[in-house]
Design goal:
- This protein is mainly α.
- It has 12 helices and 2 strands.
- Helix 5 runs antiparallel to helix 10 and helix 7 packs across helix 10.
């Protein structure tokens, strides 16, 4: 029941957000942008309430499930599957690659000593301080400059109909890789002084074996709760990527969606991750004997 209640609250919030432009504008913003007509900014609570009712009604009428893009109308069912599949492949591959890089780099930094360790940590801090948009545009510029000097195109920057992966995955991987690396280093440092680590080293286990077999296993629970923040960052950056690389993904549809289509597309993006996080959290709590109220059995 608790999970269903959360889903209903979020779904209701999406409905209120989808109708929000009607609270301040008398005319549909997308129609104004296409026709070039002027629009009056104000406060229209009655129109907002009517827009909410309209969104709710159209959610139960599949024949209205379509959106306008560049003056053309598309049935949502005809495009959402392919678009969502493309975006999720880029998203999940970037996340998996980021996890692998963070695992390897955090081990390397933890095993390093002295000046090398400080240098690697400083490099991670510099990468973390760079704005995401700077990394994306920087990668594009590097590809263009390399192509101008060598005539070799490393990866497509923008295509009309083809799916591109190399550059979007490269840009999107930087976000989880840097964040996870820094988080893992901090968590592993906390584990270094715990009794089980000293006991394992006293038995003659190598530092690498203690890290991989013991310390990493104990920080998984803490990493899981921090991963929710990573997902939100990655989804927002995926929206930017799809615009800058002209990718035909689900985030591109979200930009053109209004009203009930915004609710439907947002639900398709959000619901699988919400259910995944909820299921994993329940399993992890059960494995450590934690009840729903936060107490232990």
């Amino acid at each position: 029941m608790k999970i269903i209640r959360k889903v209903l609250f979020i779904f209701t919030g999406l409905i209120f957000i989808s109708a929000l432009p009607k609270l301040f504008y008398a005319t549909d913003l997308q129609y104004v942008n296409l026709t070039g007509e002027s629009n009056s900014f104000g406060f229209y609570p009655l129109k907002y309430a009517a827009a909410i009712l309209d969104v709710v009604n159209k959610l139960f009428q599949p024949e209205y499930w379509s959106l306008m893009r560049m003056g053309k109308e598309y049935a949502l069912a005809d495009v959402i599957g392919e678009r969502a599949s493309y975006s999720m492949k880029v998203f999940l591959f970037s996340l998996a690659l980021g996890l692998v890089i963070a695992f390897i780099v955090s081990i390397a930094i933890t095993l390093a000593s002295g000046m090398i360790q400080r240098l690697l940590i400083s490099l991670v801090n510099v990468m973390e301080s760079l704005p995401d948009i700077f990394i994306i545009i920087g990668v594009q510029l590097l590809v263009v400059m390399y192509f101008r000097h060598t005539g070799v195109l490393i990866g497509d920057i923008a295509m009309l109909d083809e799916e591109i992966y190399l550059l979007p995955v490269t840009c999107l991987t930087a976000i989880p890789a840097v964040f996870l690396t820094k988080t893992l280093i901090l968590l592993l440092r906390e584990e270094e002084h715990k009794p089980y680590v000293e006991l394992a080293r006293g038995k003659g286990l190598s530092t690498l074996r203690v890290l991989v077999l013991h310390s990493f296993r104990n920080v998984i629970y803490s990493m899981f709760y921090r991963s929710k923040l990573i997902f939100s960052f990655m989804l927002s950056n995926l929206f930017i990527l799809e615009r800058l690389f002209n990718m035909r993904g689900v985030m591109d549809l979200l930009m053109w969606s209004t009203g009930h289509t915004f609710v439907l597309i947002s639900t398709i993006i959000f619901l699988p991750f919400f259910l995944l996080f909820t299921f994993v959290e329940l399993r992890m709590k059960k494995s450590i004997g934690m009840k729903e109220d936060g107490t232990y059995a």
